[in-house]
Specification:
single chain; alpha+beta; Aminopeptidase; 8-stranded mixed sheet; 8 helices; 8 strands
Length: 217
């Protein structure tokens, strides 16, 4: 329950995070056109669980639904915005949380026009830092479908270690797919990147009294 409360406090007002070239922020209705532009493309979804977006209206409804999840602190993805032109080029965040074992799964999607420029690892490193330094996870893992070795390289560039492959572990889009796993532990992250002062954690506000479990008098 403590982790669940911590997640709610953090993500109900998902903070903006800056890297050298990116701004990681809440996904907004204004991102509809940019998200649709990459989400409609088969090369983007080939190794993902979801199919291409069928229309701009579908993307618009999806983003609208996310706003409700953000307000309840139950959505854990950031939009990736290029500093140079303000274009939203993908997303990165936590795909799943394992409260019992204090661990999480990360995921990311990037527009094909921006593949190969290092944006995915640049974003993923910051999400790993949030997970270990701010949210206190002990382990963070990432998955990829075999054949998508580019995704595995993103994980390994960030220091995640390849653990192995679960053969035909998922039935996706009418076929069995084998799934590769990479992971990182908290001590491994701090050994590689060190600890930073937490700058992106939201300041306490009225919501803490309801989900924080502590109401000081």
């Amino acid at each position: 329950m403590m982790l669940k409360n911590r997640l709610a406090r953090y993500f109900v007002r998902i903070p903006t995070i800056e890297t050298e070239r990116l701004i990681l922020r809440r996904i907004l209705p204004k991102d509809c056109e940019n998200m649709y532009d990459y989400s409609k493309r088969e090369e983007v979804t080939r190794y993902l669980l979801w199919i291409p977006h069928e229309s701009r209206e579908y993307t618009r409804r999806y983003i609208d639904a996310l706003q409700t999840q953000y307000r309840s602190g139950q959505f854990y993805d950031w939009a990736l915005e290029l500093k140079e032109n303000g274009r939203m080029i993908g997303t990165c965040g936590f795909a799943a949380i394992d409260e019992k074992n204090n661990s999480a799964e990360v995921g990311y999607v990037l527009a094909p026009d921006y593949w190969g420029f290092g944006y995915a690892p640049e974003a993923l490193r910051e999400i790993l830092r949030v997970g270990f330094e701010t949210l206190g996870f002990n382990r963070i893992e990432a998955r990829y479908m075999t054949g998508n070795e580019k995704s595995r390289r993103v994980m390994e560039k960030c220091g995640m270690k390849f653990e192995g492959i679960r053969r035909e572990a998922l039935y996706v889009k009418d076929s069995y797919r084998s799934i590769g796993y990479c992971s990182m532990l908290k001590d491994e992250f701090f050994s590689l990147y060190g600890r930073h002062e937490v700058k992106n954690e939201p300041k306490p506000h009225w919501y803490d009294a309801f989900v924080g479990g502590v109401n000081k008098k």
